[in-house]
Every structure is written in C-alpha cells, then in structure tokens.
Design the sequence.
C-alpha cells in the first residue's frame, strides 16, 4: 500500500511539474504590459512593452555597434508582433525557439505599411504558446485582413495565377525575387487568386530557405493549381504573407 | 620521464608552427603578372555582380560573360547575382579568411579599403593597367579593350587609394531629386531649375497643412511625407561638403563630430517636428510615396530613376494606389547653386588575388571586358547610370539613346534619360569622400546621426545639447570612431580566444620544460 501511495504521489508531482513547464495563458499580461488591443491603439513611434511568444525567426546577423540582431515573428492569443532587427546575442537567439515567451520593450514603427517593433530589448519569461493558424480565406482582398497583420494564418483553396512572364513572354507561376531578377536561394514570389482577389505571397528565404519543403513546393507550382497555404501575414504596401507551407488543396 | 620531456619539446615546436600557419592563412603572396597568358589551360572564374533587382541588368551581365567566353574559350565565368552592396561586402569579408573570395567583384571603394586589410587580398592594378600586352588596350587582348586614357579621369581617380589603383569604375551615378511638380504648383510655387534647401524646406512645410477633415490639403489623403531622403549617409556627407565643413581626411582622421554637423542635424530636426521630412529607413522607399502622391521631393540615386513617376516602368505599389502627376528631375538641393556639389557613386570592379597568377590574369581580362562599349552602353541604359568611358559616352549609339525623341517606351523612359543627363552635365561637380580602413564605418555613423535624430524627434524626446553630446558619444563608440583616430587599422583589437589559449599553452610548455630541466639538474647535483 505504501509503495502504491509513493508511486501515485510521485506521478502526481511529475504531472504538476510538467504542467508548470507548459501551461500558460497567452492572453494574460503582467503588470505594466500592454494588451494587444492597447498595442494596436498605441501611436507609431511610441514606446511599447509587450509579452509575446516566438513563432518563427528569420535569422541572426552581426551588426556593427550592437553585436548582433535577430528578426522574429511573434504572437500572443490576440495578435501578432513583428520584432525587426532586435539586438540579441547569438546565444540568446538560439534560445528563442518556437513558443518561447518574451517580454519586449521597444518602439512601435511602421515601414511601408508593416507595423513592427524596433530598437527593442527583451527578457525571456516562463511560458510557452504556439499559435494555431487562423483561417483568413474570407478576408483576402478586404481591408479587415489588416487586423491579422503579423499573425500565423491559413488560406484555403487559393488558385495559382501567373506572377509574370519569362524572357520568352510565357506566363510563369513563380519568380526568384519579385520580378525574376534573382537566382536559387533568393526569395520566391508567387500570386494566388482568392475570392476573386489577387494576393502576392513570398517564400522569405531567411525564414524558409531553399532546403525547406515550402521553397521546393512553390517551385513546383503550376498556374491553375489549387492550394492551401500557411504563413505569417507580413505587410509590404499591402498584405504580402511570408509563406511557410504550401499543399494541394484538401 | 624522457618521454614527457620529448613530448613537451615536440609540443614547443609544433605550437609555434601552428600559430604561424594561423597567421599565414590570412595572407597571400603578392601577385606577379605572368609574361604570357596560358591559353592551353582552362580557368573557372567567379564574378559577384550587383544588380538593382533589374532583369535587364542580369541579361547584360550574361551577355558579357558569353561574349568574353567566346573570345577566351579557355575561361568559364560563373556569375553570382546580388541586389545589395552590403551583402556582397559581408560575404567577401567572410570569404577572405578562407581564401574563397570571388575573382572579380562589384564593390564600393569604402568596402575595398576594408578588404585590403588582409595581406595581398586585393590585387593592385597599376602594373596590370599599364602592361603593353594585357593591360588596358593591350596588344594581346582578344577584344577591343578600352585604353586607360579613355576612362573618365575623375571616375578612375575614385579608385585610387594612396596612389595605387585597387579598382576600376564600372558605372557611375549620383543622387537626384524626383519631384511632384503638380503638387509644387498646387501649393503656389514655380519649380526652379536649380533647387535650394530653403525652397525644398519651405514647400515641404506648406505641404503638411491639413484640411478640417484631417486630410492633407495638397493631396486629400491621410498620408503626406513631403520630403524623403533615401540615403541619409549621403545626405549628411553632401550637406557637409556643400557647407565646406569637415567630414574626414585621407589619413583616416574623423572630423564629422563638429558644430556644423550639429547645425545640420538641428535643421533636419526642425522639419521632422512638423512631419515635413522622413527617411527611407524610417518610412519606406521614397519612390513608393512619390508615386502614391504622398511625397513631393524624393531624393534617391539616378540609378533608381525607372521607379519614379506615375508612368514608371518599374512600380512597387498597387496600380490603384498610383496617382497621376507631372514629374520633374533636378539636381539635389544646394546652398550655393553657382557651385553645386553632389556625390559620385556607383559600382566599381575589384580584382582578388589567387595562388595561381594565370587565374588572376584571366579574371583581369574579364574585368576589362566589362568596360567595353557593348557592356557599358547596354548596362547604362538599364537605369540612370552613366558609362565610365569616354569611348562609350561618345559612341553614336549612346548619344542616340540619350537624345531619343521617338514614341515613349520603357527602354527610353524620359526620367531615366534625364537622370543620366543630369550626371553627365555635372561630372565636374561630383565628389567622393576619402577611402581608408574604417571609412565604411564612418559612412554608417553619418547615417546613424541623421536617423537617430529623426527618430528622437518623432519619439518626442528632448533634442538639445545633452542629446547631441550623448548621440556623438554613442555613435563614436558604436562605430569605434574618435576625433583623432587615423583609421581603424591602427588598432588591431584584442587577440582572439584561440590565439590566447595557444600562447598560454606555449608558455606552459616552456615552463614545464624549464621545470623538468631544473629537477634533473638538482637530481644530478645530488648524485
């Protein structure tokens, strides 16, 4: 009986510890931290303090004067935050894996329509959250899609359109760089039609390089293909998602 | 015991050798020009080229490669395309340590100065240029190579550091001001032939006036950034030159942290307060705002001319956002319109040293090919560039292109032609800044001064004496600059961790040897 009790108590303790490590309410904010709604309402150039969860990262670069910087797609339960060129050491960058909770203090900025946080500092906090892809298919082509900026999204049943023409004047489904002036390893651009609206998408090579499934999948696309896709709703003079997954429409 | 002594002795010989090899891996033997180019051998050479995300430029590079390979069937050229000078710079720096640099590379002179800190990494070109057989216009060159005197002297001099040529100019551009003339006139002004800073600021301030509904009166939109500067390092450098204020000297002395810089930053700040001024780094591409009717004065390279205007062949915004307007092209604003000053910029060609001098010679021949009329005229026509040779500039095909009077088309987009003519008319009014190891960092610092000031004003921080004092200190520290520094090459910085470890081990080995020797001596004396 005693042995059984010990085993039960030990299991209970393990379960509690496990729960401590993973359970977190991504909508709950610490003292002095903005909710997503407050962040969205904050003026451009104002200081913002947020708590958010890393969802993906573009890469780490050495930068003169600050050592290094990383660019991150992050999100809480309410919305997305793009952290551009956030100073961090390579060691810290490696710690910021998917789901990691961080408290960020920086300046809200807008570059060609993309709302982001720049000149930021961060601390890692306890907590973990991975955002599910929000289906924005019905919002494509509408102004309302801006509310989903920087979040992880899904678009279903998109039809591949010609992104442009090759040197012989033939329609093509994808380009290296926005106009075909690139080569293997550069960003891939392609275009889809959803609800009658055209949407340009990018396989951002720092986020998903040439060895990734999505990079390879986009290079196999044909005009007229019907696809489901996922990615982060980046903005450049309009919605321009950074795609992380492309599959034949289910 | 003897084994231990032998091991330590061996270690003491091996470690210095390792240290020497570490040092040696950074250097290379000086290039010696071979007497004859060996056409019996095959050479694979690599060219890192920069384009402006412009497919036609890629086509021009590929045509040059094909034509060169026809002339020299024993040479194969592989081109790697870049769209950003700074990425090329970083990649070259990374590859210098592993001796995997390209053979030929598009570069800015400031960047080449940094490459030159490695031993014999960059090939000095004087001997190559002057060689009667394989030099510029050389007798044994298998194409119509340009002669030295045909390269525009001012452009060639920009590639000379300390009396030695380390690059050849490839294309030249300057900055231009692309203007929404429609809005200037709507605001009650006539656009002058030469812009002054006073005029640009005055019109910009008037353009930020809003109607009662909160939209800007001049465009009826919610967004208006009247004046956007693409390159803020160029902005500060040019304004200082226009005011005859110091920036740097050829010995590497840093002079930018002066009172005139402070005045310039103050002036800029006063127009940020009203939202009359912004920058590319803070807001986005000037051309996008110009084409959307949200900017009146967009200063960008003449090599960006094909993106400017509502009829521009290259467009980065949705067609429904484009606003119809009359565009005008002018030189950048001046303080003294009788004595205009503008920056000279554009790609240059840098030749990297290799173990095999024949490979370097093959690369040099390809580099020369890029100065032939075929390449120069074709490439300059892709943007508002100017050929760097008088031969190309005076060629009938080029003058016909410049003076095109036919139906409007993308190849002869008039804004691009106007931008090229603007530079051709002002070659003698262009300038470059001194090049030295650290000049690239100084350029970054110039940009940082402007960007930080603009950000501070936008963020409603107090911009006063204390702000500028801190800004100067921060930027000096960030880019390792000081008023009296003579280039960054004088400070080699601390030893790497590996070097320190090896030196410590070496010292320890010698200490052990000494200890063993002493112990043995003591033992012997006791015996």
Sequence:
């Amino acid at each position: 009986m005693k042995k059984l009790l010990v085993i039960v108590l030990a299991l209970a303790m393990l379960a509690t510890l496990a729960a401590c490590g993973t359970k977190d309410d991504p909508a709950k904010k610490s003292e002095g931290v903005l909710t997503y709604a407050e962040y969205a309402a904050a003026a451009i150039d104002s200081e913002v303090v947020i708590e958010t969860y890393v969802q993906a990262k573009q890469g780490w670069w050495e930068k003169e004067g600050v050592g290094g910087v990383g660019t991150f797609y992050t999100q809480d339960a309410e919305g997305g935050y793009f952290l551009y060129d956030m100073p961090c050491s390579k060691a810290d960058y490696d710690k910021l894996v998917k789901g990691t909770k961080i408290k960020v203090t920086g300046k809200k900025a807008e570059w060609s329509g993309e709302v982001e946080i720049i000149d930021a500092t961060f601390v890692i906090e306890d907590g973990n959250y991975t955002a599910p892809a929000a289906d924005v298919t019905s919002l494509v082509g509408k102004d309302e899609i801006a509310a989903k900026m920087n979040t992880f999204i899904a678009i279903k049943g998109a039809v591949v359109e010609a992104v442009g023409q090759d040197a012989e004047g033939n329609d093509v489904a994808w380009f290296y760089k926005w106009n075909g002036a690139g080569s293997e390893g550069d960003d891939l651009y392609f275009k889809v039609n959803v609800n009658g609206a055209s949407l340009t998408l990018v396989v951002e090579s720092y986020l998903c390089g040439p060895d990734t499934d999505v990079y390879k999948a986009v290079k196999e696309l044909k005009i007229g293909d019907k696809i489901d896709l996922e990615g982060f709703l980046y903005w450049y003079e309009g919605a321009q998602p950074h795609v992380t997954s492309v599959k034949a429409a289910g | 015991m003897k084994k231990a002594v032998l091991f330590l002795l061996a270690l003491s010989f091996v470690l210095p050798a390792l240290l020497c090899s570490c040092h040696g891996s950074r250097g290379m033997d000086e290039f010696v020009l071979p007497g004859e180019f060996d056409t019996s051998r095959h050479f694979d050479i690599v060219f890192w080229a920069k384009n402006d995300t412009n497919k036609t430029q890629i086509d021009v590079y590929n045509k040059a490669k094909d034509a060169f390979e026809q002339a020299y069937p024993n040479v194969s050229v592989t081109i790697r395309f870049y769209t950003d000078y700074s990425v090329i710079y970083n990649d070259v720096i990374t590859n210098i340590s592993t001796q995997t640099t390209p053979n030929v590379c598009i570069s800015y002179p400031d960047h080449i100065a940094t490459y030159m800190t490695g031993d014999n990494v960059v090939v000095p070109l004087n001997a190559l240029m002057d060689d009667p057989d394989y030099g510029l216009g050389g007798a044994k060159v298998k194409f119509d190579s340009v002669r030295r005197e045909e390269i525009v002297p001012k452009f060639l001099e920009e590639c000379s550091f300390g009396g030695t040529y380390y690059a050849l100019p490839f294309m030249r551009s300057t900055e231009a001001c692309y203007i929404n003339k429609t809005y200037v006139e709507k605001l009650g002004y006539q656009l002058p032939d030469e812009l002054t800073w006073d005029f640009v600021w005055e019109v910009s301030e008037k353009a930020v006036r809003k109607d009662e509904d909160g939209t800007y009166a001049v465009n009826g939109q919610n967004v208006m950034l009247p004046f956007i500067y693409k390159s803020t390092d160029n902005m500060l450098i040019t304004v200082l030159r226009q005011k005859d204020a110091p920036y740097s000297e050829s010995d590497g002395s840093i002079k930018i942290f002066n009172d005139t810089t402070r005045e310039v930053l103050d002036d800029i700040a006063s127009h940020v307060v009203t939202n009359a001024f912004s920058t590319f780094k803070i807001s986005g591409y000037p051309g996008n705002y110009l084409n959307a009717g949200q900017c009146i004065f967009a200063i960008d390279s003449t090599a960006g001319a094909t993106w400017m205007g509502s009829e521009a062949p290259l467009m980065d915004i949705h067609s429904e956002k484009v606003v119809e307007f009359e565009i005008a092209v002018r030189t950048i604003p001046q303080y003294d319109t009788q004595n205009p000053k503008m920056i000279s910029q554009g790609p240059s060609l840098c030749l990297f040293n290799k173990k095999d001098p024949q490979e370097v010679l093959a690369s040099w021949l390809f580099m020369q090919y890029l100065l032939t009329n075929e390449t120069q005229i074709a490439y300059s026509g892709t943007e508002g560039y100017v050929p760097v040779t008088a031969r190309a500039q005076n060629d009938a095909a080029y003058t016909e292109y410049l003076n095109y009077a036919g139906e409007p088309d993308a190849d002869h987009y008039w804004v691009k032609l106007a931008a090229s003519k603007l530079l051709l008319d002002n070659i003698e009014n262009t300038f470059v800044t001194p090049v030295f190891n650290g000049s690239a960092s100084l350029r970054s610092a110039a940009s940082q001064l402007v960007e930080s000031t603009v950000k501070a004003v936008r963020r409603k921080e107090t911009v006063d004496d204390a702000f500028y004092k801190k800004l100067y200190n921060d930027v000096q520290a960030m880019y390792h600059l000081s008023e009296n520094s003579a280039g960054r090459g004088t400070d080699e910085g601390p030893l790497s961790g590996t070097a320190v470890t090896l030196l410590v081990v070496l010292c320890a080995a010698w200490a052990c040897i000494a200890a063993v020797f002493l112990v043995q001596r003591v033992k012997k004396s006791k015996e």
The first helix of chain B runs from residue 2 to 24. Chain B has three domains: 2-24+494-526, 43-173+345-394, 175-344+429-478. The interface with chain A takes residues 51, 53-55, 57-59, 80-81, 83, 282-285, 288, 314, 316-318, 321, 441, 444, 448, 455, 458-460, 477-479 of chain B (CB under 8 Å).
